[in-house]
Specification:
With about 500 residues, the chain is mostly helical. It has two domains: about 140 residues, no CATH class; about 325 residues, Neurolysin, domain 3. It is about 65% helix and about 5% strand. The chain has a three-stranded mixed beta sheet with strand order 1-3-2. Helix 5 packs antiparallel against helix 6, helix 8 packs antiparallel against helix 14 and helix 10 packs across helix 11. The radius of gyration is 22 Å and the shape is globular.
Protein backbone atom coordinates (compact mmCIF):
# COMPACT_ATOMS: atom_id res chain seq x y z
CA UNK A 1 0.00 0.00 0.00
CA UNK A 2 1.14 3.55 -0.69
CA UNK A 3 1.29 6.13 2.08
CA UNK A 4 -1.91 7.64 0.68
CA UNK A 5 -3.68 4.25 0.80
CA UNK A 6 -2.55 3.61 4.37
CA UNK A 7 -3.68 7.06 5.44
CA UNK A 8 -7.11 6.64 3.88
CA UNK A 9 -7.59 3.18 5.45
CA UNK A 10 -6.71 4.63 8.86
CA UNK A 11 -9.01 7.58 8.24
CA UNK A 12 -11.96 5.34 7.35
CA UNK A 13 -11.61 3.49 10.65
CA UNK A 14 -11.47 6.80 12.52
CA UNK A 15 -14.56 8.04 10.69
CA UNK A 16 -16.41 4.80 11.50
CA UNK A 17 -15.65 5.26 15.20
CA UNK A 18 -16.84 8.86 14.92
CA UNK A 19 -20.12 7.62 13.50
CA UNK A 20 -20.50 5.33 16.51
CA UNK A 21 -19.98 8.31 18.82
CA UNK A 22 -22.63 10.17 16.85
CA UNK A 23 -25.04 7.28 17.29
CA UNK A 24 -24.50 7.44 21.06
CA UNK A 25 -25.46 11.10 20.90
CA UNK A 26 -28.58 10.31 18.89
CA UNK A 27 -29.58 7.67 21.41
CA UNK A 28 -29.04 10.09 24.29
CA UNK A 29 -31.42 12.64 22.82
CA UNK A 30 -34.14 10.22 21.77
CA UNK A 31 -34.56 6.95 23.69
CA UNK A 32 -31.86 6.70 26.37
CA UNK A 33 -33.27 6.25 29.90
CA UNK A 34 -32.85 9.47 31.87
CA UNK A 35 -30.98 7.70 34.66
CA UNK A 36 -28.28 6.51 32.26
CA UNK A 37 -26.80 10.00 31.87
CA UNK A 38 -23.78 9.56 34.21
CA UNK A 39 -22.77 6.32 32.52
CA UNK A 40 -23.25 7.79 29.06
CA UNK A 41 -20.91 10.64 30.01
CA UNK A 42 -18.20 8.08 30.76
CA UNK A 43 -18.92 6.21 27.52
CA UNK A 44 -18.64 9.40 25.50
CA UNK A 45 -15.42 10.33 27.28
CA UNK A 46 -13.95 6.89 26.55
CA UNK A 47 -14.69 6.96 22.85
CA UNK A 48 -13.49 10.56 22.56
CA UNK A 49 -10.17 9.48 24.11
CA UNK A 50 -9.82 6.83 21.39
CA UNK A 51 -10.81 9.27 18.65
CA UNK A 52 -8.47 11.99 19.83
CA UNK A 53 -5.58 9.53 19.96
CA UNK A 54 -6.26 8.50 16.37
CA UNK A 55 -6.76 12.04 15.12
CA UNK A 56 -3.44 13.14 16.64
CA UNK A 57 -1.51 9.93 15.88
CA UNK A 58 2.06 10.85 14.71
CA UNK A 59 1.69 8.39 11.83
CA UNK A 60 -0.87 10.74 10.29
CA UNK A 61 1.81 13.41 9.94
CA UNK A 62 4.20 10.89 8.37
CA UNK A 63 1.59 9.69 5.88
CA UNK A 64 0.68 13.28 5.01
CA UNK A 65 4.33 14.05 4.25
CA UNK A 66 4.71 10.97 2.07
CA UNK A 67 1.31 10.82 0.33
CA UNK A 68 1.16 11.74 -3.34
CA UNK A 69 -2.46 11.94 -4.49
CA UNK A 70 -3.06 11.71 -8.21
CA UNK A 71 -6.26 13.72 -8.63
CA UNK A 72 -8.39 16.56 -7.30
CA UNK A 73 -10.31 14.29 -4.93
CA UNK A 74 -7.12 12.90 -3.38
CA UNK A 75 -5.73 16.39 -2.88
CA UNK A 76 -8.98 17.49 -1.21
CA UNK A 77 -8.86 14.45 1.08
CA UNK A 78 -5.35 15.40 2.20
CA UNK A 79 -6.37 19.03 2.68
CA UNK A 80 -9.16 18.05 5.06
CA UNK A 81 -7.10 15.43 6.91
CA UNK A 82 -4.26 17.90 7.40
CA UNK A 83 -6.63 20.58 8.69
CA UNK A 84 -8.17 18.15 11.19
CA UNK A 85 -4.77 16.82 12.25
CA UNK A 86 -3.28 20.26 12.76
CA UNK A 87 -6.19 21.11 15.06
CA UNK A 88 -6.18 17.80 16.93
CA UNK A 89 -2.51 17.94 17.90
CA UNK A 90 -3.00 21.35 19.50
CA UNK A 91 -5.60 20.05 21.98
CA UNK A 92 -4.32 17.99 24.94
CA UNK A 93 -5.89 14.53 25.13
CA UNK A 94 -7.09 15.00 28.72
CA UNK A 95 -8.83 18.24 27.72
CA UNK A 96 -10.61 16.59 24.77
CA UNK A 97 -11.79 13.79 27.08
CA UNK A 98 -12.94 16.21 29.77
CA UNK A 99 -14.96 18.20 27.23
CA UNK A 100 -16.69 15.05 25.98
CA UNK A 101 -17.51 13.90 29.54
CA UNK A 102 -18.70 17.29 30.74
CA UNK A 103 -20.83 18.18 27.72
CA UNK A 104 -22.54 14.78 27.76
CA UNK A 105 -23.53 15.31 31.39
CA UNK A 106 -24.40 18.97 30.79
CA UNK A 107 -26.91 18.06 28.12
CA UNK A 108 -29.03 16.16 30.65
CA UNK A 109 -28.68 18.95 33.20
CA UNK A 110 -29.81 21.49 30.62
CA UNK A 111 -32.86 19.43 29.64
CA UNK A 112 -33.97 19.14 33.28
CA UNK A 113 -33.28 22.80 34.05
CA UNK A 114 -35.26 23.81 30.98
CA UNK A 115 -38.19 21.65 32.08
CA UNK A 116 -38.01 23.11 35.60
CA UNK A 117 -37.48 26.72 34.43
CA UNK A 118 -34.43 26.80 36.72
CA UNK A 119 -31.44 28.67 35.29
CA UNK A 120 -29.49 28.32 38.56
CA UNK A 121 -29.47 24.53 38.18
CA UNK A 122 -27.74 24.83 34.80
CA UNK A 123 -25.22 27.61 35.38
CA UNK A 124 -22.62 25.59 37.36
CA UNK A 125 -22.19 22.98 34.63
CA UNK A 126 -22.32 25.67 31.93
CA UNK A 127 -19.49 27.40 33.79
CA UNK A 128 -17.47 24.18 33.43
CA UNK A 129 -18.30 23.87 29.74
CA UNK A 130 -17.34 27.47 29.00
CA UNK A 131 -14.06 27.10 30.92
CA UNK A 132 -13.15 23.91 29.06
CA UNK A 133 -14.11 25.29 25.67
CA UNK A 134 -12.16 28.47 26.31
CA UNK A 135 -9.11 26.33 27.13
CA UNK A 136 -9.65 24.45 23.89
CA UNK A 137 -10.01 27.70 21.96
CA UNK A 138 -6.80 29.07 23.48
CA UNK A 139 -4.94 25.89 22.54
CA UNK A 140 -6.24 26.09 18.97
CA UNK A 141 -5.75 29.85 18.57
CA UNK A 142 -2.16 29.81 19.87
CA UNK A 143 -2.25 33.47 20.71
CA UNK A 144 -4.89 34.41 18.14
CA UNK A 145 -8.59 35.09 18.61
CA UNK A 146 -10.24 32.33 20.67
CA UNK A 147 -13.66 32.73 19.07
CA UNK A 148 -12.18 32.57 15.57
CA UNK A 149 -10.63 29.23 16.52
CA UNK A 150 -14.06 27.97 17.58
CA UNK A 151 -15.79 29.16 14.39
CA UNK A 152 -13.18 27.27 12.36
CA UNK A 153 -14.71 24.00 13.57
CA UNK A 154 -18.01 24.83 11.87
CA UNK A 155 -17.19 27.28 9.07
CA UNK A 156 -13.57 26.96 7.91
CA UNK A 157 -11.75 30.08 6.71
CA UNK A 158 -14.26 32.41 8.38
CA UNK A 159 -13.64 34.76 11.32
CA UNK A 160 -15.86 36.39 13.90
CA UNK A 161 -15.04 39.78 12.40
CA UNK A 162 -16.17 38.66 8.94
CA UNK A 163 -19.43 37.33 10.37
CA UNK A 164 -19.98 40.54 12.32
CA UNK A 165 -19.52 42.55 9.11
CA UNK A 166 -22.13 40.43 7.32
CA UNK A 167 -24.54 40.88 10.24
CA UNK A 168 -23.93 44.64 10.27
CA UNK A 169 -24.89 44.71 6.60
CA UNK A 170 -28.03 42.64 7.17
CA UNK A 171 -29.41 44.24 10.32
CA UNK A 172 -30.67 47.63 8.96
CA UNK A 173 -32.74 46.09 6.16
CA UNK A 174 -34.09 43.35 8.43
CA UNK A 175 -35.08 45.82 11.15
CA UNK A 176 -36.73 48.13 8.60
CA UNK A 177 -38.66 45.25 7.03
CA UNK A 178 -39.81 43.99 10.41
CA UNK A 179 -40.99 47.46 11.44
CA UNK A 180 -42.96 47.88 8.21
CA UNK A 181 -44.55 44.44 8.47
CA UNK A 182 -45.54 44.78 12.13
CA UNK A 183 -47.46 47.96 11.31
CA UNK A 184 -49.78 45.95 9.06
CA UNK A 185 -52.68 43.72 10.17
CA UNK A 186 -51.47 40.32 11.29
CA UNK A 187 -52.80 37.22 9.48
CA UNK A 188 -54.81 34.74 11.49
CA UNK A 189 -52.86 32.33 13.64
CA UNK A 190 -53.48 28.61 13.59
CA UNK A 191 -55.80 27.57 16.43
CA UNK A 192 -57.32 24.34 17.64
CA UNK A 193 -56.08 20.90 18.55
CA UNK A 194 -54.10 18.65 16.19
CA UNK A 195 -53.62 15.00 17.07
CA UNK A 196 -49.91 14.31 17.53
CA UNK A 197 -49.96 10.83 16.00
CA UNK A 198 -51.59 12.32 12.91
CA UNK A 199 -48.88 14.99 12.84
CA UNK A 200 -46.21 12.28 12.83
CA UNK A 201 -47.90 10.41 9.98
CA UNK A 202 -48.04 13.58 7.90
CA UNK A 203 -44.49 14.54 8.82
CA UNK A 204 -43.27 11.19 7.46
CA UNK A 205 -45.05 12.04 4.20
CA UNK A 206 -43.37 15.44 4.13
CA UNK A 207 -39.96 13.89 4.74
CA UNK A 208 -40.41 11.57 1.77
CA UNK A 209 -41.80 14.40 -0.39
CA UNK A 210 -38.54 16.29 0.14
CA UNK A 211 -36.44 13.29 -0.86
CA UNK A 212 -35.52 11.75 2.48
CA UNK A 213 -34.63 8.08 1.97
CA UNK A 214 -36.18 6.13 4.86
CA UNK A 215 -34.26 3.01 3.83
CA UNK A 216 -31.21 4.82 5.18
CA UNK A 217 -32.89 6.99 7.80
CA UNK A 218 -35.63 7.32 10.37
CA UNK A 219 -37.75 10.04 12.01
CA UNK A 220 -37.95 10.17 15.81
CA UNK A 221 -38.92 12.74 18.44
CA UNK A 222 -36.58 14.79 20.61
CA UNK A 223 -36.70 17.92 22.78
CA UNK A 224 -34.61 19.77 20.19
CA UNK A 225 -34.92 18.62 16.53
CA UNK A 226 -31.64 17.58 14.92
CA UNK A 227 -30.07 15.51 12.17
CA UNK A 228 -27.41 12.90 12.89
CA UNK A 229 -25.09 10.69 10.85
CA UNK A 230 -23.89 10.51 7.28
CA UNK A 231 -23.63 8.09 4.39
CA UNK A 232 -25.84 5.04 4.81
CA UNK A 233 -27.31 5.96 8.23
CA UNK A 234 -28.74 9.48 8.48
CA UNK A 235 -31.37 10.06 11.16
CA UNK A 236 -33.56 13.04 11.97
CA UNK A 237 -35.77 14.06 14.86
CA UNK A 238 -38.71 16.41 15.16
CA UNK A 239 -41.08 17.45 17.93
CA UNK A 240 -44.83 17.78 18.26
CA UNK A 241 -47.17 20.22 19.93
CA UNK A 242 -50.89 19.55 20.02
CA UNK A 243 -51.60 23.21 19.29
CA UNK A 244 -48.85 23.88 16.73
CA UNK A 245 -48.39 21.31 13.96
CA UNK A 246 -46.21 23.77 12.00
CA UNK A 247 -43.51 23.21 14.61
CA UNK A 248 -43.48 19.52 13.70
CA UNK A 249 -43.83 19.93 9.94
CA UNK A 250 -41.25 22.66 9.40
CA UNK A 251 -38.77 21.18 11.87
CA UNK A 252 -39.02 18.00 9.82
CA UNK A 253 -38.52 19.75 6.48
CA UNK A 254 -35.56 21.65 7.96
CA UNK A 255 -33.89 18.50 9.25
CA UNK A 256 -34.59 16.69 5.97
CA UNK A 257 -32.54 19.42 4.28
CA UNK A 258 -29.60 18.43 6.48
CA UNK A 259 -30.24 14.73 5.97
CA UNK A 260 -30.66 15.03 2.20
CA UNK A 261 -27.27 16.73 2.02
CA UNK A 262 -25.63 13.81 3.82
CA UNK A 263 -27.57 11.19 1.85
CA UNK A 264 -26.76 12.94 -1.43
CA UNK A 265 -22.97 12.92 -1.07
CA UNK A 266 -21.07 10.81 -3.58
CA UNK A 267 -20.93 7.29 -2.07
CA UNK A 268 -17.30 7.04 -3.16
CA UNK A 269 -16.53 9.45 -0.32
CA UNK A 270 -18.13 7.22 2.35
CA UNK A 271 -16.28 7.34 5.70
CA UNK A 272 -13.73 9.84 4.43
CA UNK A 273 -13.31 13.56 5.21
CA UNK A 274 -15.16 14.40 1.98
CA UNK A 275 -18.07 12.15 2.94
CA UNK A 276 -19.82 14.77 5.05
CA UNK A 277 -21.07 18.32 4.61
CA UNK A 278 -18.21 20.75 4.10
CA UNK A 279 -19.39 23.23 6.75
CA UNK A 280 -22.36 24.01 8.92
CA UNK A 281 -23.08 27.13 6.89
CA UNK A 282 -23.43 25.07 3.72
CA UNK A 283 -25.41 22.50 5.71
CA UNK A 284 -27.77 25.22 6.87
CA UNK A 285 -28.13 26.48 3.31
CA UNK A 286 -29.75 23.16 2.51
CA UNK A 287 -32.00 22.99 5.55
CA UNK A 288 -33.10 26.62 5.21
CA UNK A 289 -33.81 26.50 1.47
CA UNK A 290 -35.84 23.31 2.00
CA UNK A 291 -37.76 24.81 4.91
CA UNK A 292 -38.26 28.38 3.72
CA UNK A 293 -37.82 29.12 0.02
CA UNK A 294 -39.42 25.77 -0.90
CA UNK A 295 -41.51 24.68 2.09
CA UNK A 296 -43.02 28.08 2.88
CA UNK A 297 -43.55 29.10 -0.74
CA UNK A 298 -47.02 29.97 -2.01
CA UNK A 299 -46.91 26.99 -4.33
CA UNK A 300 -45.95 24.36 -1.77
CA UNK A 301 -48.19 25.68 1.02
CA UNK A 302 -51.14 25.27 -1.35
CA UNK A 303 -50.35 21.55 -1.53
CA UNK A 304 -49.74 21.34 2.22
CA UNK A 305 -53.09 23.02 2.89
CA UNK A 306 -54.84 20.18 1.07
CA UNK A 307 -52.79 17.59 2.98
CA UNK A 308 -53.75 19.14 6.30
CA UNK A 309 -57.42 19.22 5.37
CA UNK A 310 -57.24 15.52 4.49
CA UNK A 311 -55.47 14.74 7.77
CA UNK A 312 -57.33 16.99 10.22
CA UNK A 313 -60.54 18.04 8.48
CA UNK A 314 -61.64 21.67 8.71
CA UNK A 315 -59.03 23.41 10.87
CA UNK A 316 -60.27 26.97 10.65
CA UNK A 317 -58.27 28.40 7.71
CA UNK A 318 -60.53 29.39 4.83
CA UNK A 319 -58.38 28.73 1.77
CA UNK A 320 -54.87 28.25 0.39
CA UNK A 321 -54.11 31.98 0.24
CA UNK A 322 -55.07 32.47 3.89
CA UNK A 323 -53.04 29.39 4.78
CA UNK A 324 -49.97 30.82 3.00
CA UNK A 325 -50.31 33.99 5.05
CA UNK A 326 -50.70 32.00 8.27
CA UNK A 327 -47.62 29.87 7.56
CA UNK A 328 -45.56 33.02 6.96
CA UNK A 329 -47.10 35.14 9.72
CA UNK A 330 -44.64 37.62 11.21
CA UNK A 331 -45.34 37.76 14.91
CA UNK A 332 -43.82 38.31 18.32
CA UNK A 333 -42.22 35.24 19.81
CA UNK A 334 -39.31 34.05 21.89
CA UNK A 335 -38.20 30.81 20.25
CA UNK A 336 -35.53 30.86 17.55
CA UNK A 337 -36.70 27.63 15.89
CA UNK A 338 -40.25 29.00 15.63
CA UNK A 339 -39.24 32.45 14.36
CA UNK A 340 -40.49 33.74 11.03
CA UNK A 341 -38.06 34.42 8.21
CA UNK A 342 -37.99 38.17 8.82
CA UNK A 343 -36.91 37.91 12.46
CA UNK A 344 -34.94 34.65 12.54
CA UNK A 345 -31.54 36.19 11.85
CA UNK A 346 -32.04 38.74 14.62
CA UNK A 347 -32.26 35.80 17.06
CA UNK A 348 -28.95 34.53 15.72
CA UNK A 349 -27.26 37.90 16.04
CA UNK A 350 -28.20 37.99 19.73
CA UNK A 351 -26.61 34.57 20.36
CA UNK A 352 -23.54 35.40 18.28
CA UNK A 353 -22.76 38.51 20.29
CA UNK A 354 -23.33 36.79 23.64
CA UNK A 355 -21.22 33.71 22.94
CA UNK A 356 -18.45 35.80 21.43
CA UNK A 357 -18.40 37.83 24.66
CA UNK A 358 -18.37 34.63 26.75
CA UNK A 359 -15.37 33.27 24.89
CA UNK A 360 -13.54 36.61 25.17
CA UNK A 361 -14.19 36.71 28.92
CA UNK A 362 -16.15 39.94 28.55
CA UNK A 363 -19.32 38.24 29.80
CA UNK A 364 -19.42 35.88 32.78
CA UNK A 365 -21.71 32.86 32.87
CA UNK A 366 -23.34 34.22 36.04
CA UNK A 367 -24.36 37.30 34.01
CA UNK A 368 -25.72 35.39 31.03
CA UNK A 369 -29.42 35.33 31.89
CA UNK A 370 -29.54 39.07 32.60
CA UNK A 371 -27.50 39.85 29.49
CA UNK A 372 -29.81 37.69 27.34
CA UNK A 373 -32.95 39.27 28.77
CA UNK A 374 -31.63 42.81 28.37
CA UNK A 375 -30.53 42.21 24.79
CA UNK A 376 -33.80 40.49 23.88
CA UNK A 377 -35.83 43.40 25.26
CA UNK A 378 -33.69 45.87 23.31
CA UNK A 379 -33.89 43.92 20.04
CA UNK A 380 -37.48 42.72 20.11
CA UNK A 381 -39.25 45.26 22.31
CA UNK A 382 -40.73 42.96 24.96
CA UNK A 383 -39.45 41.03 27.95
CA UNK A 384 -38.55 37.34 28.21
CA UNK A 385 -41.27 35.69 30.31
CA UNK A 386 -39.49 32.50 31.42
CA UNK A 387 -36.06 30.85 31.06
CA UNK A 388 -37.20 28.20 28.57
CA UNK A 389 -38.12 31.10 26.29
CA UNK A 390 -34.79 32.76 27.02
CA UNK A 391 -31.30 31.52 27.65
CA UNK A 392 -32.40 27.90 28.29
CA UNK A 393 -34.18 27.41 24.97
CA UNK A 394 -31.25 26.06 22.92
CA UNK A 395 -29.20 22.92 23.55
CA UNK A 396 -26.06 24.24 21.80
CA UNK A 397 -24.12 25.79 24.68
CA UNK A 398 -24.71 22.82 26.96
CA UNK A 399 -22.93 20.56 24.47
CA UNK A 400 -20.13 23.03 23.80
CA UNK A 401 -21.15 24.23 20.34
CA UNK A 402 -19.64 27.70 20.60
CA UNK A 403 -19.12 29.20 17.15
CA UNK A 404 -22.03 27.20 15.72
CA UNK A 405 -24.87 29.73 15.99
CA UNK A 406 -23.67 32.19 13.30
CA UNK A 407 -23.65 29.39 10.73
CA UNK A 408 -27.45 29.41 10.82
CA UNK A 409 -27.47 32.91 9.36
CA UNK A 410 -24.60 32.15 7.01
CA UNK A 411 -26.79 29.28 5.80
CA UNK A 412 -29.62 31.74 5.14
CA UNK A 413 -27.22 33.95 3.18
CA UNK A 414 -25.99 30.99 1.13
CA UNK A 415 -29.58 29.79 0.60
CA UNK A 416 -30.48 33.20 -0.80
CA UNK A 417 -27.72 32.88 -3.40
CA UNK A 418 -28.70 29.29 -4.27
CA UNK A 419 -32.41 30.10 -4.58
CA UNK A 420 -31.71 32.93 -6.99
CA UNK A 421 -29.83 30.48 -9.24
CA UNK A 422 -32.40 27.71 -8.73
CA UNK A 423 -35.25 29.93 -9.94
CA UNK A 424 -33.39 30.52 -13.18
CA UNK A 425 -32.42 26.87 -13.63
CA UNK A 426 -35.89 25.40 -12.94
CA UNK A 427 -38.45 27.78 -14.50
CA UNK A 428 -41.32 25.35 -13.83
CA UNK A 429 -40.50 25.22 -10.07
CA UNK A 430 -43.79 26.71 -8.84
CA UNK A 431 -45.88 24.35 -10.94
CA UNK A 432 -43.96 21.40 -9.51
CA UNK A 433 -44.19 22.55 -5.90
CA UNK A 434 -47.94 23.13 -6.25
CA UNK A 435 -48.22 19.37 -6.87
CA UNK A 436 -46.06 18.55 -3.86
CA UNK A 437 -43.23 17.64 -6.23
CA UNK A 438 -39.87 18.93 -4.97
CA UNK A 439 -37.70 16.85 -7.29
CA UNK A 440 -36.81 19.68 -9.67
CA UNK A 441 -35.39 21.70 -6.78
CA UNK A 442 -33.86 18.86 -4.80
CA UNK A 443 -32.23 17.29 -7.85
CA UNK A 444 -30.64 20.65 -8.74
CA UNK A 445 -29.34 21.04 -5.19
CA UNK A 446 -28.01 17.49 -5.15
CA UNK A 447 -26.17 18.02 -8.43
CA UNK A 448 -24.70 21.42 -7.64
CA UNK A 449 -24.11 21.22 -3.88
CA UNK A 450 -24.86 17.99 -2.08
CA UNK A 451 -23.00 15.37 -4.11
CA UNK A 452 -19.69 17.18 -3.66
CA UNK A 453 -19.58 16.78 0.13
CA UNK A 454 -16.32 18.30 1.34
CA UNK A 455 -14.63 18.47 -2.07
CA UNK A 456 -14.71 22.28 -2.28
CA UNK A 457 -14.33 24.98 0.37
CA UNK A 458 -17.62 26.39 1.77
CA UNK A 459 -17.78 29.69 -0.10
CA UNK A 460 -16.40 28.04 -3.23
CA UNK A 461 -19.19 25.48 -3.44
CA UNK A 462 -21.83 28.21 -3.08
CA UNK A 463 -20.14 30.37 -5.71
CA UNK A 464 -19.80 27.42 -8.13
CA UNK A 465 -23.48 26.54 -7.68
CA UNK A 466 -24.97 30.03 -7.72
CA UNK A 467 -22.57 31.87 -10.00
CA UNK A 468 -22.22 34.76 -7.55
CA UNK A 469 -19.87 35.66 -4.73
CA UNK A 470 -21.77 34.75 -1.52
CA UNK A 471 -23.31 37.78 0.15
CA UNK A 472 -26.55 38.77 1.89
CA UNK A 473 -28.16 40.82 -0.91
CA UNK A 474 -30.03 37.94 -2.64
CA UNK A 475 -31.49 36.85 0.72
CA UNK A 476 -32.56 40.37 1.67
CA UNK A 477 -34.06 40.97 -1.78
CA UNK A 478 -36.01 37.69 -1.49
CA UNK A 479 -37.33 38.58 1.98
CA UNK A 480 -38.37 42.08 0.96
CA UNK A 481 -40.15 40.86 -2.16
CA UNK A 482 -41.94 38.01 -0.40
CA UNK A 483 -43.12 39.90 2.66
CA UNK A 484 -43.96 43.09 0.77
CA UNK A 485 -46.33 40.99 -1.29
CA UNK A 486 -47.77 39.22 1.75
CA UNK A 487 -48.33 42.42 3.73
CA UNK A 488 -49.09 44.85 0.93
CA UNK A 489 -46.08 47.07 1.59
Amino acid sequence: MTAFDELMAFQRETSALGQIAGRLGWDQETVMPRGASPQRAEEMAAIEAVLHARRSDPRVAEWLDQAAPQDEVGKAQLREIRRAYDRAVKVPADLATAIARTTSAAQGTWAQARADEDVSAFLPVLEEVVSLKRQEGEALAQGGDVYDAMVEDYEPCTTGAQIAAIFDEMRPRLVALRAAVLERPEPAALTGSFDELTQMRLTQKLAVAFGYDLNNGRVDKAVHPFSSGSGLDVRITTRTSETDPFNCFYSTIHEVGHAAYEQGIDRGYLLTPLGRGVSMGVHESQSRIYENQLGRSRAFTGWLFDQMKDAFGDFGIADADAFYATVNRVHNGYIRTEADEVQYNLHIMLRFDLERALMAGDLQVSELEAAWNDRFKADFGYAVDKPSNGCLQDVHWSVGLFGYFPTYSLGNVYAGCLYQALRGAVPELDEQLAEGDTTGATAWLREHVQQHGGLYAPREIIQRASGVEPGPEPLLDYLEQKFSGLYGL
